[in-house]
Amino acid sequence: MVQKKIGWLVPFVLFGLFGLFFYANSFALESQSERILNFYSSIVVNKDASIDVTEIVSAQADQKKIIHGLVRWLPTHYTDSYGISRSPDYQLRQILVNNQPALYHTQRTDNQLAIYIGEKDVTLSPGIYVFTIQYHVDYAVNALKDADELYWNITGNNWDFPIVKAEADITLPEGAIIQNFAGYTGKKGEKGSDFFTRSLADNRISFATTRPLMPGDGLTIAVAWPKGIIHHPGIGTQLKNQLYVNRGGWIAIEIGLILLVYYFIVWYMVGRDLRPGTIIPLFEPPENLTPAVLRYIRRMGYDTKALTAALLSMATKGYLTIQNKDDTFVLTKTDEDNLLSPEESVLGRRFFETKSSFQLQSSNASVINQAKKDFKTTLKKTCADQYFITNTSYLLPGLVLTLLAFFAAVGASHDHAAALFAVIWLSIWTFACTMLFLMAWRGIQHAYYMPSFRYIFSASLATLFAIPFFGGEIAGLIMFSRVLPISLLLLLLIIVIANIVFFRLLKAPTPAGRKLMDQIEGFKRFLSTTERYRLEQFTPPEQTPEQFEKYLPYAIALNVENEWGEKFNHLLVQAGRDPQTYRPQWYSGDVWTGTTAATLPVFLNSGLSSALATSSISSSSSASGGGGSSGGGGGGGGGGGW
């Protein structure tokens, strides 16, 4: 009964709300005494892909912002759908006020052409004025795959005043038939449909808005027709125009090409590796070198795995034991005083300087980082330039060229400050994302080989923590693409990759180093060959648990820990022993389920490498047609008073 009594009120309430909305909108327009009463644009498309534009702007002036006249802003740079930076060359033909020739002056900035209509010494009386702007634009028609298209921002989205009504009349060349069309209203990026169209002829169509456009809103249109009518400029003319428009971009491309040629010449002169000799399996380390030294020579540089191999080597020599306790690796020095290599002695002195046990955790980050530094220094002194030459001095000109290319690319942007900020921000953010990815990946590997709740939770937490940063990376790339063409983004990416690749390629072994590397490959072949019959002709030594443990650090150093573990696992099975019961005397841990002789090398490498990487970071707190839209295409800009 109550529903029947109040049901008749619903239409009145809705009518009242609609009236209130209409009144509020009208009040908003009336409260701004200065406004654009009508924005009319007539665009004639020519067969040479140029357009002639006539804009007739009827404005209400009240000596607030429109004091001397109207100012029209036209963008001088925009990026088309192919990522190519375009710079329209506006050729002004006529400026009128109330159908009479008017004085005007122009002003260019990084991204716009400002047309000031009126005289500085003349103040307009309040009233309605009609401003007419006629201009010509070359290369305004887009050549799509199956059609030609005019994609044009009629009003622009940066007017200081509301636009009560906007209209556009598009006329194509004779013989063209409109194939498709679209329109968009609203703020930049929106796809509003507050407009209607009217077909005036096969080659002519008009657009008109159905609501006022508030400041920030605009009208954008797209009209397509079959190919064959428009005669687009040849490739030579287009390149010439692009060279003029994107001078900074072309300079960046030229610098990038010079950089690649420079790196290739330098690599050819000093970076080419000597040809490897005949590889013969060796059953013991060449020249009795340590695992860390073998890895350092083979990679011609340092990484964390060399430190992991050194710790395992110290353990197999009886110098220390390794315990995995409560997610932390604990190193304990034994009473045995075995002979260590120089780089291993450095680690022993640093880790056990004040006590006989040392935990690989973030609270000891300063000690671990100093130990790493001393370890790398000792390795470098041991090898010096005896086995390989880094040729790092040749990278300096490459880095200078890289910086010049980046500055040229920033200069090619229409917004230099935004482009420079994007380059700096993305460089730092990308580095942070790379570090987070490596930490998360190590955590996943750790959880894979030690599948306990603690490690799985830790890996999941690291992964979830990294995801928002990668989201920020994508958002940054999108932001970057708005201030620089995609083609330049790809160029900068290629330049960065070239520096990384040639940093590695410029390293070259000496003749002595080449000979030693061949021997290292022979020893690696012995460690990685699981079929014993392939080695029989070389009389391999008998395989024992002692040999397995002795060469385990070498297998990790040479990236064949999987094969070496499988080989020993097979040996235990043949001997009738359960691989899961095998444990080295120098290791103990809370997690052993699923670990066998085959997975032990991978388990230790993953766990120790992860622990060394994460524990070297100090604990701290930190904070961290349908494809268009309003504001897209050519044209645009906005306007105001002056």
From TrEMBL:
<dbReference type="InterPro" id="IPR018702">
    <property type="entry name" value="DUF2207"/>
</dbReference>
<dbReference type="InterPro" id="IPR048389">
    <property type="entry name" value="YciQ-like_C"/>
</dbReference>
<feature type="transmembrane region" description="Helical">
    <location>
        <begin position="486"/>
        <end position="506"/>
    </location>
</feature>
<feature type="transmembrane region" description="Helical">
    <location>
        <begin position="394"/>
        <end position="412"/>
    </location>
</feature>
<feature type="region of interest" description="Disordered">
    <location>
        <begin position="619"/>
        <end position="642"/>
    </location>
</feature>
<protein>
    <submittedName>
        <fullName>Putative membrane protein DUF2207</fullName>
    </submittedName>
</protein>
<feature type="transmembrane region" description="Helical">
    <location>
        <begin position="418"/>
        <end position="441"/>
    </location>
</feature>
<keyword id="KW-1133">Transmembrane helix</keyword>
<keyword id="KW-0812">Transmembrane</keyword>
<feature type="transmembrane region" description="Helical">
    <location>
        <begin position="453"/>
        <end position="480"/>
    </location>
</feature>
<feature type="domain" description="Predicted membrane protein YciQ-like C-terminal">
    <location>
        <begin position="283"/>
        <end position="568"/>
    </location>
</feature>
<feature type="domain" description="DUF2207">
    <location>
        <begin position="35"/>
        <end position="225"/>
    </location>
</feature>
<feature type="transmembrane region" description="Helical">
    <location>
        <begin position="248"/>
        <end position="270"/>
    </location>
</feature>
<keyword id="KW-0472">Membrane</keyword>
<dbReference type="Pfam" id="PF09972">
    <property type="entry name" value="DUF2207"/>
</dbReference>
<feature type="compositionally biased region" description="Gly residues">
    <location>
        <begin position="624"/>
        <end position="642"/>
    </location>
</feature>
<dbReference type="Pfam" id="PF20990">
    <property type="entry name" value="DUF2207_C"/>
</dbReference>
